[in-house]
Structure formats: structure tokens, C-alpha cells
Amino acid sequence: MTSLLDPDARGRVILVGAGPGDPGLLTVRAVAALKAADVVVHDGLIDPRVLEIAPAEAHRISVAKRRARHTLPQDAINALIVAHVRAGSVVVRLKGGDPFIFGRGGEEVEAVRAAGLPVEVIPGVSAALGCAAEAMLPLTHRDHSSAVSFVAGQCKGLTEQDWSGLAGQGRTLVIYMGVATADAIADKLMADGVAPDMPVAVLEKGTCPGHRALKTLLADLGPMVGREKVASPAIIVVGEVVELSDAEDKLVAWARAAESMNG
């Protein structure tokens, strides 16, 4: 199949993973796609420097999504993409992280294919990989973890899901979009058998200015998120590998502060 990056190909859409934030983590292929764009339909957290890679005359359209506040519903985004492709434009659908990891890229590919239009997907460095690397947190490790799982923390029916086996000895769990439900996530994991003293890290604004890597124990996850005023975007990592990271130990810091106040 001929690549959609062929300069003579018109009326096409390219789903591009923009990575976790730092423009330096864009792939070479992602940069080439942006430079070929007539229209860039982008998420809200894309670094402005990434958008500047597209030609100055390219039409930039934000379809930013926040918790309970969407610029456009997903069906409208799909229709927008299809309309511009049918008009003969090269449309880059620019998504944070990787399009196929909690990015709803699969739904957009389905919509474009259903319209009978050509589509290509360019993967990106996922938030889990980028943020973990920055914090020197190996998601797998020969001595500590031989499996890693990815889950969404804002999914429907959280309490009804069975998370047993996803985290524990020798396994790492990465939770996307979990800051707002951190208390419920910790309760759910402990109810499904994860030890309360399992190490957990919160990686906030990874690879971006103001990033933080914080760690504590699972039982303290919700309280720590509150104490430290952690805000999205952030991912949560649960597992023994957290102890290998550069994340700042906020449980120890909090305990020392409390002891000093009480002393």
C-alpha cells in the first residue's frame, strides 16, 4: 500500500501521536505528516510548538476535551474529519500520546473507513512510556516486573470491574486519567487483593514544564493526591518498580512534617 505521506495523495487523514508533551519526542514520520497538513484537528493539551510545525496556512482546529467538558462530542469530531477529507484536504488528527492508547483513535479510524476514505496511523510515544522514562521508572524489570497492564481510571462501572491480577508482586499497573478517582482506585485495588503497602507513583505533567514525580504507598494514594494538589494530566503507576524511580517520597515527607508539628 502506498503511504498516505505521498505528496501527491489528496483527500486523506493521518492520525498522528504527538507524544506526552515534549516536542522532542515526536517521531520523524509525525513531523513529516504535520508539514504536509492542510488541516490539523488537535487535542487541547498539544504543545504550541508542535502545532507550529504545520504550514502557517494550515487550518488548526481544537477539539479539546476535559473531564465533563468537551468542545465537540466524538461523533461531531468524526464528522468534522470526514468533511475536510471529502473536500480534498490532508487532515492530520493530532492526538496526545499514542492514538490507539486511550485516545479513541480506533473510533476515528472506523468512522473514516466507513466513509470510504483513506487513513493512516502514525504511532506516538505514549504517556506511560514518556513519563515513566523521565522519572527513571522502568515499567518492566527482570528482577521486579515481567508484566505491565494499562487501564483507564475514569471508565464506567469502575467498582464492577475485576482488577485482580493486574497489580501485585512481579506486575506493574499503569492507570490513565485516574487523578479525580484516586481514592476509589486505591480502594478498588485493595479490595481486589493488592497490598496496602504496594508502592505507587503519580507522574504529573510528564515531559512538560512543571512536571512532578511523586511516590507513596497504595493506601495513601488518595490522600497524597489531595495533599499535593495533583492535577491532570497525570498517570498513576502501581508496582514494585516504583521503588527504582527518582520519584519523590511524599509519604515520608508528610510523616516527618506531621511528626514535627506534633512534637
Describe the protein.
Pfam families: TP_methylase. Pathway: Cofactor biosynthesis; adenosylcobalamin biosynthesis; precorrin-2 from uroporphyrinogen III: step 1/1; Porphyrin-containing compound metabolism; siroheme biosynthesis; precorrin-2 from uroporphyrinogen III: step 1/1. The chain has 263 residues and is α/β, with parallel strands linked by helices. It has 2 domains: 12-125, Tetrapyrrole methylase, N-terminal domain (Cobalt-precorrin-4 Transmethylase, domain 1), CATH 3.40.1010.10; 128-254, 2-Layer Sandwich (Methyltransferase, Cobalt-precorrin-4 Transmethylase, Domain 2), CATH 3.30.950.10. Helices cover 28% and strands 24% of the residues. The strands form 3 sheets. It has a 6-stranded mixed β-sheet, sandwiched between helices. The chain is elongated. 41% of the residues are buried.
What is the N-to-C order of secondary-structure elements (H for helix, E for strand)?
EHEHEEEHEHEHEEHEEHEEH
- Share of helical residues: 25-40%
How many strands, which pairing sense, and closed or not: the largest β-sheet? 6 strands, mixed
Work out the helix count. Answer: 8
Name the CATH homologous superfamily of the largest domain. Answer: Tetrapyrrole methylase, C-terminal domain
Distance between the termini: 71 Å
Our Rg estimate from Cα atoms comes to 20 Å
Average pLDDT value?
Answer: 91
The second-level CATH architecture of the largest domain is 2-Layer Sandwich
SSE class: alpha/beta
Whole-number count of domains: 2
Organism: Sphingomonas mucosissima
Keywords: Cobalamin biosynthesis, Methyltransferase, Porphyrin biosynthesis, S-adenosyl-L-methionine, Transferase
Pathway: Cofactor biosynthesis; adenosylcobalamin biosynthesis; precorrin-2 from uroporphyrinogen III: step 1/1; Porphyrin-containing compound metabolism; siroheme biosynthesis; precorrin-2 from uroporphyrinogen III: step 1/1
Family: Belongs to the precorrin methyltransferase family.
